[in-house]
Write a sequence for this structure.
């Protein structure tokens, strides 16, 4: 049966305005034909909503023969499933896949204990010894050979006792180095 063998129906003005109202007025008036009305009514009967058809018609690029382009678009939409039907089918597929998917089960208590014991055993392995901090050695005192505490000149370092001697005047710096 040919697509256009059906009895031609006139599209009511409200539906025509809902579908073609966003188009230029001249084009919308030219599309008020029985052929276009039949195509729109067939789309609506198959489950398309007026707004879905209007969106697709309004998004068409302008061409040299816009009326023929709209008729081709509407004829092409008849071969497609309405978006609502596609959405419901995809949702049913997702739900079927979700319900048939095997969810992970929690581990049994024995398995859990074995894994924890293995982890603890791996953690308690031999530890690498930390290197001891380096002991900082101070140079020897220039007067008494004890560990120096004070920096006097580039070559002279003195311990606390020798600094006190230097302060009292018992020793002088040239004697120290």
């Amino acid at each position: 049966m040919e697509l256009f063998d059906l009895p031609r129906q006139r599209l009511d003005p409200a539906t025509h305005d809902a579908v073609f109202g966003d188009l230029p007025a001249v084009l919308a008036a030219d599309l008020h034909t029985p052929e276009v009305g039949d195509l729109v009514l067939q789309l609506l009967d198959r489950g398309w909503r007026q707004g879905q058809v209007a969106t697709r018609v309004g998004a068409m690029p302008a061409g040299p023969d816009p009326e023929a382009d709209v008729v081709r678009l509407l004829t092409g939409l008849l071969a497609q499933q309405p978006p609502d039907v596609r959405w419901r089918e995809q949702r049913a597929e997702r739900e079927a896949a979700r319900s048939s998917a095997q969810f992970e089960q929690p581990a049994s208590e024995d398995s859990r204990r074995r894994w924890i014991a293995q982890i603890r055993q791996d953690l308690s392995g031999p530890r690498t010894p930390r290197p001891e901090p380096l002991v900082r050695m101070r140079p020897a005192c220039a007067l008494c050979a004890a560990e120096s505490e004070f920096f006097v000149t580039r070559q002279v370092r003195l311990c606390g006792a020798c600094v006190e001697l230097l302060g009292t005047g018992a020793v002088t710096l040239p004697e120290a180095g």
